[in-house]
Specification:
Largest sheet: 8 strands, mixed
Number of helices: 12
Strand order of the largest sheet: 1-7-8-6-5-2-3-4
Number of strands: 8
Strand content: 5-15%
């Protein structure tokens, strides 16, 4: 496929993010749950990576999937925001049990949440705790300046509508058990990428803030949203096997074409059941083929078959 061809979106293969297993403890704006089925296909289609690199980790759904499902030998999560990085450092460090205990024993009320958010912690553990609380009780999980706290929330539950202590505990414990496969770095993504150029043992998933082409969503959603997109594309062109996700706009298309990368629009259905298009970009996207339709089952089997329940770590809402 020539570089930068843009066929119609894959509308017949729309991923509903509500149906994708959740491993991350974050509610993250711009999260990549829709990409997880494609992540598995991409990594299965290539030689097993020695290292899976996520330079804009954020909510870390891709890294969590790779670590828990053993899809690469090691995972490196890079995050510039010290608050988000603190959460990952605690989860994959020595204080994960203490974070679980804090979550399970915390009495969530509008007042207690406000007190945590108003605090100004300096130690990594307390920064992580404040970040977890703010993320779970804020509109859309936004912790950037200007993000507001839920008032009514789902079903009028307010701050409790996204506070699932047992689910958070299960996810954190599961991730902590995979800590030997994960390294967390608080660093600049572009500087880290420069250290992995032309390495065929590295699979890099790049999901930057969507600020190319003058888009403002990334500026509103993230504290660190300023990015040299041209430099990022130049680095991606020198990686052995990068996969990027971007918003669908003309500037991103032009950058993909300029640096010889393939791109295709992908349709996904967000948590509000709205179908949206994003761009999937890489050196070779032949692995991204439509899913086969599920085999039909007889009525008798549908009445009697018992479907396996999802793993406990993924069974509750995000």
């Amino acid at each position: 496929m020539p570089a930068a061809q843009f066929p119609m979106s894959d509308m017949g293969n729309v991923v509903n993010v509500a149906q994708v297993s959740q491993y991350s403890p974050f509610r993250y704006p711009g999260g990549k749950s829709w990409f997880i089925p494609r992540l598995r296909k991409w990594l299965a289609a290539r030689e097993r990576p020695r290292l899976f690199l996520e330079p804009f980790a954020g909510g870390g759904s891709a890294s969590c999937t790779v670590a828990l499902e053993g899809l690469a030998d090691h995972v490196v999560m890079v995050e510039l925001d010290h608050r988000v990085a603190a959460v990952w450092r605690v989860i994959f460090g020595e204080d994960a049990d203490a974070l679980v205990e804090r979550i399970l024993t915390f009495e969530m009320t509008p007042e207690s949440a406000a007190a945590v958010i108003a605090s100004d912690p300096q130690e990594t553990f307390e920064i992580a705790w404040r970040t977890v609380v703010q993320n779970r009780v804020s509109h859309g999980g936004i912790i950037a300046p200007g993000g507001g706290v839920l008032k009514r929330g789902e079903g009028g539950k307010g701050v409790l509508s996204r506070w699932y202590p047992e689910t958070l505990a299960r996810r954190i414990r599961a991730l902590h058990a995979a800590r030997h496969r994960v390294t967390v770095l608080q660093a600049d993504a572009l500087e880290i990428l420069e250290g992995y150029l032309y390495d065929p043992t590295v699979a890099a998933f790049i999901d930057p803030p969507y600020t190319a082409g003058g888009k403002k969503a990334g500026s509103r959603l993230y504290t660190h949203s300023t990015l040299d997109h041209e430099r990022l594309f130049a680095l991606a062109a020198e990686l052995d096997d990068p996969v990027l996700t971007y918003d669908l706009n003309s500037e991103v298309r032009a950058l993909a074409e300029r640096f010889g990368l393939q791109a295709k629009p992908i349709s996904m259905k967000n948590a509000h059941h709205t179908v949206m298009d994003e761009l999937l970009i890489g050196k070779e996207l032949a692995w991204d083929t439509p899913e086969e339709p599920p085999a039909k089952t007889s009525r008798s089997r549908r009445r009697t078959a018992k479907e396996p329940t999802p793993a406990a770590v993924t069974s509750s809402p995000g």
